[in-house]
Automatic annotation (TrEMBL):
Full protein name: Aspartyl protease family protein
An MF annotation (GO) of this entry: peptidase activity
Spans traversing the lipid bilayer: none
Lineage: Bacteria, Pseudomonadati, Pseudomonadota, Betaproteobacteria, Burkholderiales
Entry's Gene Ontology BP terms: proteolysis
Keywords: Hydrolase, Protease, Signal
InterPro entries: Peptidase_aspartic_dom_sf
Signal peptide span: 1-30
Length: 312
């Protein structure tokens, strides 16, 4: 079965746009992104896409059904160009917030739409400040129209229960019981970080990225080397894929001791200004976990995982 690495393609398309949006208007956008559910709980089914190693949700916009990646690593809601055209959006009239790079490394404009009205699981939602990116071949082959950032959609307690393939939204008055098996941190750019330990080394900070199928480490942290010709070493613009390493890697995460059959090595991993950030936790781990966010505060975020990772 052919597999696709959507994360590396999306990362360098979105990088410039996310930086511009969050650095200029971070607090204003965060306040506008979310909405409150006064009834509940609301349960949104998630579907595992084995080819891309991500979960998707069904979103209806203008009577058009779309599949969006559930991506906690994104600071914005995202759709691609062809989806915008399908929805009747004239992107030529939208403001350009910067330049990104497409899947081939070519410069492309990044546009932003103020809002889109949508529905999920028969509940009306509003997607604010939607970034429109160029079409990506891998996404198109899989019928994926874009990305949805779960932590920015609702101003309510949410639980991403990947083990049971459901995204639950509770009323504000009914927070979830947190399983405090791991420290978690809410970063100013609307990202979630936690600690992870690999190969009995010192703990490092890692972003929780449900839009990435793989878990990544800086090569130096694991004491492993990158190939000289690998783009992660040379620092080629738009290189986010890194180098696959099939050495079994023992990790300690969310109170569990696990062994990953493979990881991705990169020269540097940086999604914050924290000097101890040296990893990214993707769906190779998170597929069998749940992330609970009662409020955007460090002490109100919980992570829990199954005792063992299934072999599939």
């Amino acid at each position: 079965m052919q597999r696709y690495n959507l994360q590396s393609s999306l990362l360098f398309i979105l990088g410039t746009a996310v930086a511009l949006l969050t650095s200029a208007t971070s607090s204003a956008i965060a306040a506008e992104y979310v909405e409150s559910v006064e009834y509940g709980p609301l349960t949104i089914p998630m579907t595992w896409n084995a080819q891309a190693s991500v979960f998707t949700v069904d979103v209806n916009i203008g009577n058009t059904n779309l599949k969006l990646i559930v991506d906690s690593g994104s600071s914005n809601q995202v759709i691609n160009d062809s989806t915008a055209r399908l929805l009747g959006i004239d992107t030529s009239k939208l403001p350009e917030v910067g330049k990104g790079k497409d899947h081939a490394g070519n410069p492309v404009p990044i546009k932003v739409l103020a809002m889109l009205h949508a529905s999920m699981a028969s509940h009306e939602v509003t997607l604010n400040n939607v970034v429109i990116i160029p079409d990506n071949p891998d996404m198109s082959k899989l019928g994926i129209a874009g990305v949805i950032s779960p932590q920015l959609l609702f101003d309510n307690p949410i639980q991403l229960d990947f083990a049971h393939q459901k995204w639950v939204v509770n009323p504000k008055t009914k927070p979830f019981v947190l399983e405090k098996t791991s420290k978690a941190y809410w970063y100013k750019k609307n990202k979630i970080f936690t600690e992870i330990t690999a190969e009995t080394r010192a703990p490092v900070l890692a972003m929780l990225d449900t839009g990435s199928g793989t878990t990544k480490f800086e090569a130096d942290y694991l004491g492993r080397s990158l190939k000289e010709m690998d783009c992660a070493v040379r620092g080629v613009a738009g290189c986010g894929k890194g180098q696959r390493d099939d050495t079994p890697t023992r990790i300690s995460f969310a109170g569990k001791e696990l062994t990953l059959a493979s990881v991705v090595l990169q020269k540097e991993i940086r999604h914050s200004d924290k000097t101890d950030e040296r990893a990214l936790i993707g769906m190779s781990i998170l597929r069998f976990c749940s992330i609970t966010i009662n409020h955007r505060l460090d002490e109100q975020i919980g992570i829990a995982c199954m005792n063992e990772l299934p072999k599939n």
